[in-house]
Amino acid sequence: xxxxxxxxxxxxxxxxxxxxxxxxxxxxxxxxxxxxxxxxxxxxxxxxxxxxxxxxxxxxxxxxxxxxxxxxxxxxxxxxxxxxxxxxxxxxxxxxxxxxxxxxxxxxxxxxxxxxxxxxxxxxxxxxxxxxxxxxxxxxxxxxxxxxxxxxxxxxxxxxxxxxxxxxxxxxxxxxxxxxxxxxxxxxxxxxxxxxxxxxxxxxxxxxxxxxxxxxxxxxxxxxxxxxxxxxxxxxxxxxxxxxxxxxxxxxxxxxxxxxxxxxxxxxxxxxxxxxxxxxxxxxxxxxxxxxxxxxxxxxxxxxxxxxxxxxxxxxxxxxxxxxxxxxxxxxxxxxxxxxxxxxxxxxxxxxxxxxxxxxxxxxxxxxxxxxxxxxxxxxxxxxxxxxxxxxxxxxxxxxxxxxxxxxxxxxxxxxxxxxxxxxxxxxxxxxxxxxxxxxxxxxxxxxxxxxxxxxxxxxxxxxxxxxxxxxxxxxxxxxxxxxxxxxxxxxxxxxxxxxxxxxxxxxxxxxxxxxxxxxxxxxxxxxxxxxxxxxxxxxxxxxxxxxxxxxxxxxxxxxxxxxxxxxxxxxxxxxxxxxxxxxxxxxxxxxxxxxxxxxxxxxxxxxxxxxxxxxxxxxx
Length: 621
What we know:
Layout: E1 5-10, H1 14-26, E2 30-34, E3 48-50, H2 54-63, H3 68-75, E4 76-82, E5 92-97, H4 99-111, E6 116-120, E7 123-129, E8 132-138, E9 143-151, E10 160-163, E11 166-169, H5 181-187, E12 192-199, E13 202-204, E14 214-216, E15 239-243, H6 246-253, H7 277-283, E16 291-296, E17 303-307, H8 315-322, E18 333-335, E19 338-345, E20 362-364, H9 374-392, H10 406-417, H11 441-452, H12 457-480, E21 482-483, H13 485-494, E22 504-505, H14 506-510, H15 517-523, H16 525-531, H17 536-547, H18 549-566, H19 584-593, H20 598-602, H21 609-618
Parallel strand pairs: 1-2, 1-9, 2-6, 9-20
Antiparallel strand pairs: 3-5, 4-5, 7-8, 8-9, 10-11, 10-19, 12-19, 13-17, 13-18, 14-15, 15-16, 16-17, 21-22
Helix pairs in contact: 1-9, 2-9, 2-11, 3-4, 6-8, 11-12, 12-17, 15-16
């Protein structure tokens, strides 16, 4: 009935979709297995992509040939660039999407790919022989052969949904949980754990009083996630902001004794950085209000997402509390918020390629690795898909360094440190933030995808080369063009910057704090005429590189030093227990993780600089 596939992807959430596309665009024949064809690429929680650090990840996915950025651009209802008041390393794109259109667009793009087949059924087991996976086994007892298998099960593995004192099996509202896989993986020697996440109630937007809330419009000039020429919306939907108050908190507290969080029925660990509303009230009892974002779910639906009000309290408590929020006095609820517990597997059981250490050609990606968020999941799926394809051909895995991408930081953190709570990406996790900006993701990563042979990279590489040439020309002009005092002093005085006494190179003016390229164009006609030949994206990129050139140089030097340790490979079967100079904790961690390189070893929690010195001596360095 089935041919033998190169790659079988289990699960069609954000991770599974990116994994399928990546492997297919590398040339593999892919089978995407999902329990429900109608929920492919479902936005299970908020209808948005991007945000702080997450926006950088989406741009990196796009630069590597993934589809998340393209789908988001085609389906967005609002776009905002966050953190514009801060330095460009912190700028992060975020978009509200039309939830139904997002899933539909993803499915149509997947169906259009000739290398991707589909099968709707639960996978409840793996076909394993010795230390190698050979395919999957379904609930109907079908055995489907595959050279490699990628598990992207999201929150479905033994999922339990909690609403107040009620609990029932499920991987998402209205969908059953996946069973069988966890038990088999534990039998194979994998370490499993439980995590928890939650979602807020959805309400009827027709019953809200938006005039009683603060309006939050999108950017006047909407940007893009994709580096391709995706459409820019002619109009955008506004979001709104409102706040809880002491009366809301008082009502919510009446449900605490029936809360699964406070009664101990939920054993899984939830995301620290996205707590439920009851958790916020309990932990921050001194605060009288919490901010809520009222987000539309799409162009043609009245359904509204109440961001910041995740809850697993009894539904009647949620409803009463909602109606005390300004603007929600007459609100009707479509469905209550809920918490969901699910199985995950410690990611220290993975290689940096996301292949499991125990079973060859078996890959894990997404929430099964203890992460949270569409963006983190999509990034892992992309890397797993690429590496599954490479594994079949016995080629070297594709591994991004921490200095190359936020995706590299994400995976390096997971496989070296593991996680005790749902892992979320932040800019603070990256030590090379100025190198890893959202505006240069294509320059950093598209050449790597092109070298891999990823389908569709020729046109992207042509744009990258054009952008690089434009940046070089702009940089050259800024370094060579001199500005006279009489041409710019009045502007500098207005900005509170020191006046010139003699001619100065334009680059030096731009490097001053609070001086932007857009302002210089307005006061220097020669610069304005020169820049007319270039697109705005290249102009902003070149200006940022010039303005922060000193910091960029320092980060590159730091990265080069660390990368030297990445070139020192450790024997795969090194007997760490015989290296008596190592601390007992280092010995234990090194044996468990078995790092590929000395650089990876240096980032393992519990491995000290003294332990690295012992390894250097052992390796004759």
